[in-house]
Each structure stands twice: as C-alpha cells, then as structure tokens.
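TL;DR need structure tokens for one chain.
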Amino acid sequence: MRISEGVKQLLIINILFFIGSQFVPATYDYLAMYYFENAKFQFWQPLTYMFMHGGYMHIFFNMFALFSFGSTLEMIFGTKRLYVLFLLSGLGAALLHMGVNYYTVVSNVNQLVAAGYNKADIYAMLPSGQYIVHWNSIIGPSNVESMFSAFNNPVVGASGAVYGFLVAFAYMFPNAELMMMFIPVPIKAKYFVPGILAIDLIGGLTGGFSIFGGGTGIAHFAHVGGALTGFLLVRYWKQNQFKQNRWDL
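>> reply
TL;DR here they are.
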C-alpha cells in the first residue's frame, strides 16, 4: 500500500520537529512535557511532546510503526479520524503518565511529611535534585529516585499515539500476522498487541524491562495510556458504524 496523505503529513511534522530540535536543543525545555508542578511545565506541552523525540532510533521506531499501521487505518477511518486517533491517543498517554507521576510524587512526599519533614521544604528541594540522606531509610533509595525522576524528567515521543494506532489495527484486524523487528516469528495481532502491552505494564509497575531494552527512560504508562485511549476510540467508532460517516478531507 502506498503511504496515505494523512500519514505522510504526520511523518513530515514529526521529522521537522526532530530536525529543528537538533539545531535548537533548547526547544526541549519548551516542547517536551514536564511534570505539571515543575516550573518548566507549560500548558501546551501535553500536545507538543508527542512530536518531539530523544534520538535517531527513537524517532525511527515510532515513524516506522506510524508508517506500518497508519495508511491502513486511514483507508478505513478517513484522514480526519486518523488525526483524531493520533492526537487523542497522545493526550491519553500524557494523562496516564502524568497521573502515575503525580501518585509517585505525592505518595512519597506524604510519607516524608508523616516522618516529620516539612512539605514546602520537600517541594523546594525536588527541582534541585538534592535530598536528605535520611530519606533513603524512610521511603527507600528506589522511591527517592522515582520521586525525583517523576518531578524532573520530561517525556517526549509519539509512542503513546503510535500505541493507539497499534491497538486500533489489532482491533480491526485481530488475525493479521505481525512480527517484531529482528524476531521473524509471525504472531496474530490479537496476541501480539496484548503481549506487548503486558510487557509495558510489567515494566511500568516494576521499573524493569521493555521490549526495546532497558527499563530506564521509557514511559511505560504512556504507552499503556495511548493504547487504552486508542482502543476506546476505535471501539466507539466501530459500534457507531463509522464507515457510513467518514470524516474525509
């Protein structure tokens, strides 16, 4: 299948954002998505973060997936609904990611407050990356690291939106056979996609592994949030006979 117009435009936008960020690295501070209580957070970041990428392999895998599934979905749903699927899946990814970060920060801060530390002092220290060593004995070193990571580390990438595409494709074509790159074993989409999501969910809960290797620096819950949003959206469209109401440009 030739690349469809909507997919082509999404690819161009993502690539232009990536090229621009290579020439002006400071754009990450404005367009990546920070924790909402971080001073670097801006209201537009839950939208712009999905067009930013952290490196060549990051954008390659996301754009490859966008290319692989997007044209088929656009043929079925129409161009406007493809855009809606991309944007809402990305926003759903941002919402779940931010919600998990909020829980991580608040639950650990509350434990420190219960141990006698001042809440305002804790929040004042979070942006600096410095903390009181005694915190390790209260909430544990891993939770200290998770709290600072949630508060300070931005998230970038179209992965959440792409997971929405992946789930939408699996919902429409459950028996289509897919293969993970570098592992040439065909697996039906109805097994392949839940398997990937299970790995991401485990990685998010444990801070462990990912299908792309390495547990650190991967927004597992953003993947899950994008997938869940994509599933709910395509299920709604299918139940409401979207084929009779395409939003073609």
